[in-house]
Design a protein that fits this description.
By secondary structure, the protein is α/β, with parallel strands linked by helices. 14% of the residues lie in helices and 32% in strands. It has two domains: 90 residues, 3-Layer(aba) Sandwich (Rossmann fold), CATH 3.40.50; 114 residues, UDP N-Acetylglucosamine Acyltransferase, domain 1 (3 Solenoid), CATH 2.160.10.10. It contains three helices and 25 strands.
């Protein structure tokens, strides 16, 4: 490992982890040690043809990795079906003193007036306008867009092709599914889920699941 390279562990080992790995492979400033995978332990798998992820163990190996690799950083690579696990692992990384690495695809466009906090992943084709604020360990997926002055708090997952208009506030642990649209100045409450293709024109309560055009609450999570 070159002296200037930052050692990185990816938390998760599925298809999203493969996408993150591909981005990191192209960065000369980092070296990916491998992945943690609670389900598979010490096994290895190939979630995407041509991409083989080395499984280092489950989450319990993080303290050992931090001791063995000074300067270790972590990247959360778990999908929207595991939001509670993402939140828990973010706490684990903080307790172990492992900073989160921000991952940005070279084909994403981020305004120089936008702000990303540590641990966020921005995928290919994403667009972040000026004044946008994205909190720690969020995901802005393929082709998603955040207009000016949108504010995402921690652990928000914005799915493929979703559209978030200007001055929207999205509270922690929210999922905006593929192709959903959020109109200007709407507030999405903590832990809510906006289903694919929905159009949200009014505030969404905490933990609500909304569907349709215009979006309506159909149930509550938890």
């Amino acid at each position: 490992m070159a002296e200037q390279q930052t050692p990185v562990v990816i938390l998760g080992a599925g298809g999203f982890a493969a996408s993150v790995y591909e981005i990191l492979q192209a960065r000369p400033d980092v070296v990916v040690l491998g992945c943690t995978d609670k389900a598979l332990g010490l096994s290895e798998r190939t979630p995407v043809e041509g991409v083989r992820l080395r499984i280092l163990g489950d989450d319990d190996v993080l303290p050992t990795l931090a001791e063995q690799h000074p300067g270790l950083h972590g990247v959360l690579a778990l999908g929207p079906e595991l939001m509670d696990v993402r939140a828990r692992l973010a706490q684990v990384l903080a307790l172990e003193g492992i900073p989160q690495l921000t991952v940005v695809h070279p084909q994403a466009h981020i305004s120089r007036f936008a702000r990303l906090e540590d641990g966020t992943a921005v995928m290919a084709g994403a667009l972040l306008g000026p004044g946008t604020q994205v909190g720690p360990h969020c995901v802005i997926n393929l082709g998603a867009s955040l207009d000016h002055d949108a504010h995402l708090m921690q652990n928000v997952f914005v799915g493929q092709g979703a559209r978030v208009a200007s001055n929207v506030e999205i509270q922690p642990n929210v999922v905006i599914e593929m192709g959903a649209s959020i109109n200007s100045r709407v507030v999405i409450g903590r832990g809510a889920r906006v289903t694919g293709g929905a159009f949200v024109n009014t505030d969404v309560p905490d933990h609500a699941v909304v569907v349709g055009v215009p979006a309506r609450v159909v149930r509550y999570l938890g």
